[in-house]
Amino acid sequence: MNRMTRRSLLMAAPAVAFAAKRTSVGGAPSPYGALPSARQLAWSRMESYSFVHFSVNTFTDKEWGYGDEDPSIFNPTAFDPDQIVASLKAGGMKGVILTCKHHDGFCLWPTRTTEHCIRNSRWRNGKGDVVRDLSRAAHRHGLKFGVYLSPWDRSSPYYGKPEYIELYRQQLTELLTRYGPVFEVWFDGANGGDGYYGGAREKRLIDKHTYYDWPGTWALAKKLQSDAVIFSDIGPDVRWVGNEKGHAGETCWQTYDPVGENGGPAAPGDVRAKDSMAGTRNGSHWMPPECDVSIRPGWFWHEKENDKVKTPRDLLDLYYKSVGRGASFLLNVPPDRRGLLCDTDVASLKQFGELVANTFAKNLAAGAKLEASNVRGGNSAYGPQNLMDGRRDTYWATDDAVKNPELTLEFGRPVSFNLIRLCEDTRLGQRIGAFAIDVWKDGDWSPLTQGTSIGTCRLIRLDNAINSGKLRLRITGSPVCPALAEFGLFVEA
Ligand code: FUL
After folding, report:
1. Which of 186, 264, 325, 433 could form a disulfide with 260 if both were Cys (CB 3.0 to 4.6 A apart)?
2. Mean pLDDT of all residues in 326-348
3. What's the gap in Å between 12 CA and the centre of ligand 1?
């Protein structure tokens, strides 16, 4: 097989729309740069969703099973998908992605492709199906369902051979055709190494650029679930953020042109991860980041980590560093050997959900008197009142020639806040490159904060609460007229 270039890998991605170089007078601004697809837009509105890592590892106390585990050991004593999903929902999670198969190769559904699956477990005499039960519970509770299917399979005798790709695609086909709508397909970059491999017990390394024929697998996923976003180190829809701590970069662009670790072509498992946190300003692919992190030190449940669960405030901090930087927050919460989420995890989720809901319940900027230095065509359809309507698809825009406008907000009385939210209407691309906010103090403007990327959402947490009756927002860097959808002031609960 020819070595695939980064270009050929990425060209297989969905078409990217580029801004037409034209000036529109009076009408909506022309879109700028790479643009999101409808499924990427829908995904970005979810903000927070969960990972559920559950497998033989839950029973062996491991993070990466070798692949020689006896399927019979998978036997949760009180599996309750409703408890899992309801707890995630209380944490504000809008979806759940299940490790249908982790690196150990054990399939949580009765697959036709291998005997290394739930059919040969003791659980429900081999008649159970965790994928079915969790996907149904998710849909019952109004959460979306997503699948993780590890490309690396340390159990399969075929791993490393061409036959495995066929088997992997059959597994993917089963998952994407049997369990209803899927919102995200998660392709892990961790690939190849020691394993059981049907008894061979050896090291198998694969060429990350060619072995999987990723464009072919992505096309299959798209064919079977056209609304699902595809995640990997290099997208094509959603990119890995480059770390497993739950942080996007302080500057974080929605667009990205990934390169490999050594500066060559990129592939899943070969990406210069430090670049993934920031993305690429004016990059040619709309590929926003997802921040995956576990509520515990490990991805799977381990008894010894029961007292190491992140607190609601820890989770809130991660929310600011992911959602608040234009990424999504993928929080892993692993079930224990009963097949339930533990009380500590459940309590932390619930309080985190309440903190977020209470913090953003009221936009203190609503009701302010707004004065914009320019409104597009003098048309109120593009006026600054759109910033306060809670909608991401109405926006304040200026004339094409006005790239650095200002907006003054007057409250008529002092308002106290310690959190600022800005959102662009990303349907028109990522336009704004820099902004500043000033506060009126002792008869003059005083700089309060400044930043770079906005995109889907930018949250600015202030060290101290500000008490002021007048604020000013300045767009200080934008190659085109801005299209800002939301401006909010909040008090952290
Ligand atoms: C990694 C895997 O190796 C971990 O076990 C975990 O599944 C994490 C989400 O992705 O690459």
Report:
1. 264
2. 98
3. 25
Residue 11's pLDDT band (boundaries 50, 70, 90)?
Answer: very low
How far, CA to CA in Å, does 399 sit from each of 25, 165, 232, 435?
8, 52, 38, 18
**In 327-405, beta strands by DSSP E:** 328-332, 369-372, 396-397
CA of 64 to the centre of ligand 1 (A): 9
Positions of E strands within 377-457:
396-397, 406-424, 434-441, 444-451
Whether 299 lines ligand 1, by a CB cut-off of 6 Å, is: yes
- As a whole number of Å, the end-to-end CA separation of the chain is 56
Q: Are 230 and 238 in contact (CB under 8 A)?
A: yes
What mean pLDDT do residues 352-370 have?
97
**DSSP one-letter code for 117:** B
pLDDT of residue 26: 65
Q: Which of 458, 46, 84, 53 is nearest to 228 (CA)?
A: 46
Ligand 1, atom 10, lies closest to the CA of: 188
d(CA 444, CA 317): 33
d(CA 41, CA 46): 9
Q: Tokens standing for 221?
A: 């996923």
Q: Is the CB of 300 under 6 A from ligand 1?
A: no
List the one residue out of 134, 136, 98, 130 whose CA is nearest residue 117: 130
Of all protein residues, whose CA lies closest to atom 6 belonging to ligand 1?
299
Burial label for 442, CB within 10 Å (0-12, 13-18, 19+), is: exposed
Spacing, Cα 270 to ligand 1 middle (Å): 15
Cα 46 vs. chain centroid, distance in angstroms? 8
The pLDDT value given to residue 20: 36
258, 265 contact by CB (below 8 A):
no
DSSP state for residue 358 in the 8-state scheme: H
> Closest Cα to atom 4, ligand 1: which residue?
299
Q: How far apart, in whole angstroms, are the C-alpha atoms of residue 317 and residue 313?
A: 6
What integer best gives the mean pLDDT of the chain?
A: 95
Question: Nearest to residue 249, comparing CAs of 22, 13, 453, 32?
Answer: 453
What percent of the chain is modeled with pLDDT above 90? 94
Q: pLDDT digits over 99-127, tens only?
A: 999 999 999 999 999 999 999 999 999 99
Q: Does the Cβ of 292 fall within 6 Å of ligand 1?
A: yes
- What is the pLDDT at residue 191? 85
Instruction: In whole angstroms, give the CA distance from residue 184 to residue 12.
Output: 18
pLDDT for 220-252, tens place per residue? 999 999 999 999 999 999 999 999 999 999 999
pLDDT in tens, 262-304: 999 999 999 999 999 999 999 999 999 999 999 999 999 999 9
Ligand 1, atom nearest to 189 Cα:
11
C-alpha 188 – ligand 1 centre gap (Å): 7
**Ligand 1 close to Cβ of residue 190 (< 6 A):** yes
Q: Which atom of ligand 1 is nearest to the CA of 53?
A: 7
